[in-house]
């Protein structure tokens, strides 16, 4: 009995000792010694993994004694595998070598800025995106990056959302996914609502502010957003993410991947659903999406297919809230018809090759196809039959009906397809890095409208198209860019792009005008710059770049073809410094963006009463941007950014409708040196991260946006007030035995219940008065954001 008890006690002690085994260490850059936060550490064969914290530290607890192969990986570095014997408390540090460009990085490298590129940029990692990814659209995950202002029609960050960078709206921001253009060829916008939960399939994002480097698609006329989708994972995995929050917002995501099969093949997939009632009345969203990727990963060649799709139904909140209701009914929605919805599906197909061709050459080529189709439905009370639809009056007995209630659908059915390529050469001594690239894309779009119901039926059949027009747009570009190390650590950069656009359209527009016509453009976009790599991780840079941009669809359809506005021209100067060294990093830059012929709304009308945009000769944006982060201790990180700017139009003329005149007319007013609309002079963010115990991170995220005007008159009665919001985020990670990692997230948005509106619109007109005079009436409409609200999520990773 004594022996049995002794043996049992020894067994218990042995088990206890095994449970107390611990592996910890630090991941560093082998050359500089800088710690690498966010590195992935895997104990092969154990099913457990970890991620290095902001100080580069990692830890595994309760490990059985033995020898393990530890695999450490980090973006931009060579993956390291090493055998480590673990008995008791074991310390093992890992130093990673910078990687020669991997085949997957080649996919986006041609359109991205590198460490020596003389332009202003910021790269956001998967880990940074994941922290806030609880269901809100991608713009809101970028809210705390420099010079960014976000907005949401529904007021909760789900549905129709957008962002501005340096005051430039979504139509002036180039967006690519794996180097493939995503901007709509006609409006130049990106509709994030068609890409719900896309951030869950993103590896990293680079935002270039200003003109940036040459890319594919729409002109980079204020900034560019370059997205790389998920890269391969070495081991099989599965993830389940569920979020719940205010306004009945829910997000459900399932992801899985095979890891490398036979060291060559990998398949990854994601399925997502996001629903929300919205902050604004009836502004619900029902969003569904999937992402599937499969690839062959050879030693020097990669073949990859990405298929992703988004389907959305959103209740319209496009009209905004009238100014007189902001205090009493901030959630007001003028639409009440139950099916006043937007319905759209967008399918994307990408066929990608990337490879290394010998010692000096790398190549990337991709074919793509996007199919989009959908409509928005509207109830139109007492609508005009002849004027708005071209329908003859309805005769019932001796009654002639010229107006009636109508339900209509306006459709868009389009195809976008083409190819992009790049060929990269690096000299043997590494001093010359040159890329030739470009692309050719075609857009084929059909716009048409149907009346699906009339209170009084006429001779028109259901689905009869009361307008129908098609557009074909060919967009071709080729660029040559090179960086040359002229002397030690001093680099010269040049980037030359030629872009050609052929745009034809024909048919009847929704205002019943024939808009048939064609336009052709040829643009030359040169860029030059210098950079110098100093000590302690510093890079100094300066550049000059030119961008040219064609008008958008509405500029053609709303204006007679003989009066189409001129293309816009931007000349951009950037100069700054960026530093990453040990436990801190910072950046500072000056910019000047000079516009010629910038297109703006002035109030002028076309022959059927629609607003048209006009060129203004001279306008500019100038400012300074500062951003940085410092690891104060293993428990505290402080970061932030601020942008100070002036955004001016030298002179423009405003047109105001005069309904007090005997015959309708427009009166003009000329303004000089006024602020550009939606361009705040100050935008800043601050982030404080606190890690009191292992696995727990508490963050305070603050955002300040200065006042901004709704139009270009700098009228104090037509503006958005400044706002200062604060969000509080809790993240807790643990590794129970039944999963690799479990993560709980609580995000409390707008903790001080700030009432603010980041977006809106305005219009003015003269009305007659009782005394025979006239009065100026200005109507402002706003898109309010929600007060205090929350999102909570749980993630399981296997």
Automatic annotation (TrEMBL):
Residue ranges of every copy of the TonB-dependent receptor-like beta-barrel domain listed in the record: 311-751
First and last residue of the signal peptide: 1-19
PROSITE patterns in the cross-refs: TONB_DEPENDENT_REC_3 (PS52016)
Pfam families to which the protein is assigned, alphabetical: CarbopepD_reg_2 (PF13715), Plug (PF07715), TonB_dep_Rec_b-barrel (PF00593)
Molecular function GO terms recorded: siderophore uptake transmembrane transporter activity
Domain spans labelled TonB-dependent receptor plug: 116-222
Cellular localisation: Cell outer membrane
UniProt keyword list: Cell outer membrane, Ion transport, Iron, Iron transport, Membrane, Receptor, Signal, TonB box, Transmembrane, Transmembrane beta strand, Transport
Gene3D superfamilies for the chain: Carboxypeptidase-like, regulatory domain, TonB-dependent receptor, beta-barrel domain, TonB-dependent receptor, plug domain
SUPFAM superfamilies: Carboxypeptidase regulatory domain-like (SSF49464), Porins (SSF56935)
Membrane topology recorded in Swiss-Prot or TrEMBL: Multi-pass membrane protein
GO cellular component terms given for this protein: cell outer membrane
Protein family according to the UniProt entry: Belongs to the TonB-dependent receptor family.
UniProt name for this protein: TonB-dependent receptor
